[in-house]
UniProtKB/TrEMBL annotation:
This is Response regulator. It comes from Sulfitobacter sediminilitoris. The lineage of its organism: Bacteria, Pseudomonadati, Pseudomonadota, Alphaproteobacteria, Rhodobacterales. InterPro entries: CheY-like_superfamily (IPR011006), P-loop_NTPase (IPR027417), Sig_transdc_resp-reg_receiver (IPR001789). It comes from the Bacteria. The modification 4-aspartylphosphate is found at residue 57. Transmembrane segments: none annotated.
C-alpha cells in the first residue's frame, strides 16, 4: 500500500474544541490508529508521535493556530498535513498554503470525504518508495497463488541489489498454500496473537518471516481459525502494516472467498492483478470483483485481468479477445499459457518454476506483464 493497511493518524485539536467529530469518524474505523493531542501539548512537546498523516482540527485561524502550524510543520515536515476548520477568510487560506497543507476540508465534514482525503494523501506520499500489489483469485482454482509466487520471484530478479525489499504475504489462512508450494511450512501459530494484535511490531515480523533462497521474504501460515476469530481484522491489518513498513515491494495472495478484512485490504493496495479463467462463470465473477473494487476505491485504478491456464485453439477460441474487451471495457487483460507439466514438477519438488525452466513461456508472459505495469520496479503507471 503505498498506503499501508493500517494508517497512523495524529489529530491536533484546537483549544476551543471540547469534542471532535473528525476524531470520532477516524477512531471508529479499524483501518486507523489514532493519537489525539491538544494544541497546548504540541507547544510543550519537542516532537510529534510517529504517524503517516497529521490532521489539525480547529474552528477559526488565530495567532495561536498559526504558531501551532509552524511547530507541526517543523516536527513533521515530511508528513501529509490535513486541515479541518470552519470557513476561512482569504488571509487565513494563504497561511495554509504557506505551511504546505496537503488538503483542507470545511465543516461540517462528511465521513466519506474525510477518509478519502486521508487515504489519498498518504498514498501519494508513499507511492514513490513503496508498493503493495494484490494478486486476487476471482474463482477457486484459478492459480492466483502460483501467479503471486512467481511475481515475487520475478521482482527479485529485476532488482538484485534490493531483494530484501520484496515480500510475499499469503492471506489464505485456510490452506497457507504458498508455504506448501515452496516447501517452507511455518509452525508458528498466528492465532495466538489474535487476542492481542498490538504485539505485532517490527521485532515480531522479524521472528515470523522466512527468507527464500531467491531473496524474497515469505509470510504464510495455515491457520483456518484466524478466518473466524473476532480479532482477525485488527490482526491482519496490523500484520500488513508492519510488513509494508519492513519491505518496499509486497505481493499479497488474496483468496476468492470473503473474509472480514478483505474489503479493508482491497481498498488500500496500489495494484490489482485479478487471476481468472476463460469461461463465462469465471468472467462473471471477475466482473463482480471489478465492480466491488471500483466501489471501494473509485477513480484511477492500476488493475489488470489475467486469464490463466490459457490454451490456444487451432480453429479459434470459444470466447474471443474482442468479446472479452467488450465485457471488461477499459480494464486491460492478458493471457498466461497453460504449462501444467513444468508447474506440476515445481510443486512436487517444492521449488520455483524458474528453477525448472528459465525459458518457460508462462514466466516470460508474466514478466512482460509486470514490466508493462511497472510492478517489479516499485512504481505504478
Amino acid at each position: 500500500m503505498s498506503t499501508a493497511a493500517l494508517t497512523r493518524v495524529v489529530i491536533v485539536l484546537g483549544k476551543e474544541l471540547e469534542t471532535s467529530n473528525v476524531a470520532e469518524i477516524i477512531a471508529n474505523n479499524p483501518r486507523y490508529v489514532v493519537t489525539t493531542l491538544r494544541m497546548n501539548e504540541i507547544a510543550k512537546s519537542a516532537s510529534l508521535p510517529d504517524a503517516d498523516v497529521v490532521l489539525v482540527d480547529f474552528n477559526m485561524m488565530g495567532d495561536e493556530e498559526r504558531q501551532i502550524f509552524s511547530e507541526v510543520r517543523a516536527n513533521a515536515s515530511d508528513k501529509p498535513l490535513i486541515v479541518v476548520s470552519e470557513k476561512l477568510e482569504p488571509d487565513a487560506m494563504r497561511h495554509l498554503f504557506k505551511f504546505n497543507v496537503d488538503d483542507w476540508l470545511s465543516k461540517p465534514v462528511e465521513p466519506e470525504a474525510l477518509l478519502d482525503v486521508i487515504t489519498n494523501s498518504v498514498r501519494a506520499k508513499r507511492s514513490d518508495s513503496h508498493q503493495v500489489n494484490a494478486v486476487i483469485s476471482c474463482v477457486g482454482g484459478a492459480g492466483a497463488t502460483t501467479v503471486a509466487i512467481n511475481m515475487a520471484d520475478i521482482a527479485c530478479k529485476s532488482r538484485p541489489k534490493r531483494k530484501s525489499g520484496v515480500a510475499l504475504v499469503d492471506l489464505d489462512f485456510s490452506t497457507g498454500n504458498c508455504s506448501y508450494l515452496l516447501n517452507m511450512v511455518s509452525t508458528f501459530n498466528l492465532g495466538t496473537v489474535a487476542s492481542a494484535p498490538s504485539r505485532i511490531d517490527q521485532e515480531f515480523i522479524s521472528v515470523i518471516q522466512q527468507k527464500h533462497d531467491a531473496g524474497f521474504f515469505l509470510y504464510s501460515f495455515k491457520r483456518p481459525e484466524v478466518n473466524t476469530d473476532p480479532g482477525s481484522i485488527e490482526l491482519v491489518l496490523r500484520l500488513l502494516d508492519a510488513i509494508s513498513l519492513e519491505h518496499s515491494n509486497v505481493f499479497l495472495d488474496i483468496p476468492y472467498y470473503e473474509t472480514p478484512w478483505r474489503s479493508n485490504v482491497l481498498s488500500a493496495v496500489d495494484t490489482y492483478t485479478l487471476v481468472t479463467e476463460l469461461n463465462l462463470p469465471a468472467i462473471k465473477h471477475t466482473l463482480d470483483l471489478i465492480e466491488h473494487i471500483k466501489e471501494l476505491r473509485g477513480g484511477h485504478l492500476s488493475m489488470h485481468v489475467i486469464f490463466n491456464k490459457h490454451s490456444r485453439k487451432l480453429f479459434g477460441a470459444r470466447i474471443t479477445s474482442r468479446r472479452i474487451k467488450e465485457l471488461l471495457g477499459d480494464i486491460p487483460f492478458s493471457y498466461l499459457p497453460s504449462d501444467g507439466s513444468m508447474l506440476g514438477e515445481a510443486a512436487d519438488r517444492g521449488v520455483l518454476p524458474s528453477e525448472i525452466s528459465t525459458r518457460s513461456p508462462f514466466l516470460k508472459k508474466l514478466a512482460n506483464y509486470m514490466e508493462t505495469a511497472r510492478i517489479s520496479t516499485g512504481t505504478t503507471t
